[in-house]
Amino acid sequence: MSDVFDIYTVIFLVLAVFIFLRLRSVLGTRTGHERPPYDPYSRRETPTPGTSDNVVTLPPRTDSPLDVPVPPAERFKGTYEPGSGAEKGLGEIASVDPSFDAQVFLQGARAAYEMIVTAYATGDTKTLKGLLSKDVYESFAATIADRERRGETVETTFVSIDKATIRGAELNGSTAEIEVRFASQLVTVTRDRAGAVIDGDPEKVVEVIDIWAFARDVGSRDPNWKLIRTESA
Asked: How far apart are the first and last CA of the chain?
């Protein structure tokens, strides 16, 4: 038994030496001057002149037109009615709210105008509540309730919103107020309980001019504007 044990012991020792020598030839030895593993998030230092590192130095950053701030007046140029005096108010709003853009505001106002007119016609008070100030909502809701008690229905179809322009703007404290003139083409008709037409014409397109005022607290995180006043021109 001892002879067998000695033979296997010698075989294992020979294999161990052979494997060690192979690993040494493939992996090499550590000399104490090895580079650490590459860290892609580490800060790369600029090499000094004369070094052999292959580093491409990027040209210095230059200002592009996109980096130059756009003056507030340029952001709302052409959005207001000439001679209306709205330019001053828009400038005041932009001075306290750098994100304000009159073109973007008018796009939202056009969308709100159509949503409010349609919701009022269909009696959708849930939609109206999110778009109107408290006073305006209560007035609209009361009119809708009276109409429903009489059994009347209103049908309104938008043909187009031809134009939306700012005719007034001001900043009162932290409250921005903008007045917009809408010119639209509508088909609107009111029917009684029996379905008979009592106002309007279902076959006639009419031009409607509305002047609406929207307000927003520029100090608030809420970006939404609400309708605070309506007027028919």
From this structure: 117
Task: Out of 1.10.357.10, 3.40.720.10, 3.10.450.240, 3.40.50.2020, select the CATH number for domain 72-232.
Answer: 3.10.450.240
CA–CA dist 225, 217 (Å, integer): 8
What span, in angstroms and rounded, lies between the C-alpha atoms of 139 and 220? 25
Distances (CA, A) of 191 to 115, 148, 181, 197, 226: 21, 11, 28, 4, 30
Query: How do beta strands 153-172 and 175-191 pair?
Result: antiparallel
Strand, helix or coil for residue 40: coil
| Lowest-confidence segment of 24-28, 34-38, 51-55 by average pLDDT | 34-38
Digit-coded pLDDT (tens) for 68-89: 556 655 667 789 988 888 989 9
Strand, coil or helix: what is 64? coil
Domains of the chain, by residue range, sit at 72-232
